[in-house]
Specification:
Layout (H helix, E strand, L loop, with lengths): L1 H22 L2 H7 L5 H11 L3 H12 L19 H10 L13 H19 L2 H10 L1 H9 L7 H20 L1 H4 L6
């Protein structure tokens, strides 16, 4: 009888662990996928018409919410913008005193990144193409579209899929913080 009870408890514990591992409830996802700079993410997502969960997913994928992150290609900050891209955005949005060091300021980096995402949405209309252009560049996406091809870079296909997956996680796990007006 004791052996049966031990086996039942063991299976119950394994079942619970498997459930948590497979379903990753929101509390676990909030630990695994943080949402730093909530007010900045919400404000700029609203201003530029970007889904806040998509914005959080891009930031997580690009920098894991580290404002000092730097890539080998010279991209900087939360949204991993290159200084050249950011300077172009600053000029197009009326900025006059752009400094590359501004890209480590979360508010500036996210504002420029949201502006850029909105610009890509206006051009490509489809989220997958926007994400591909954000990752691989507009020239590559334009070439693929002209050739009637899908995303040609495996790393860009993986990036798009990962961001879309993260978007769902952020929408579920952080719904009350990202969409406060609609939270129950």
């Amino acid at each position: 009888m004791k052996r049966l009870a031990a086996v039942v408890l063991l299976f119950a514990a394994l079942g619970s662990a498997l459930y948590v591992w497979k379903t990753e409830p929101p509390w676990f996802e909030r630990l695994r996928y943080p949402l730093d700079y909530q007010s900045i993410v919400r404000a700029h997502a609203h201003t530029y018409g970007i889904d806040p969960a998509l914005l959080a997913a891009v930031i997580y994928q690009e920098s894991k919410f580290d404002p000092t992150a730097r890539s080998k290609s010279g991209a900087v900050g939360l949204m991993q913008l290159t200084p050249a891209t950011a300077e172009g955005i600053a000029i197009r949005t009326g900025g006059r005193a752009f400094r590359a060091s501004d890209l480590t300021t979360p508010e500036i980096n996210v504002r420029y990144g949201c502006w850029y995402l909105r610009d890509l949405f206006q051009k490509y209309k489809q989220e997958r193409l926007v994400l591909a252009a954000y990752n691989a560049g507009q020239g590559n996406v334009d070439r693929w579209l002209r050739a009637h091809e899908g995303i040609q870079f495996p790393e860009t296909r993986a990036y798009v899929s990962r961001v879309e997956h993260l978007q769902g996680i952020y929408r579920d796990a952080w719904h009350a913080k990202l969409y406060p007006a609609t939270a129950n």
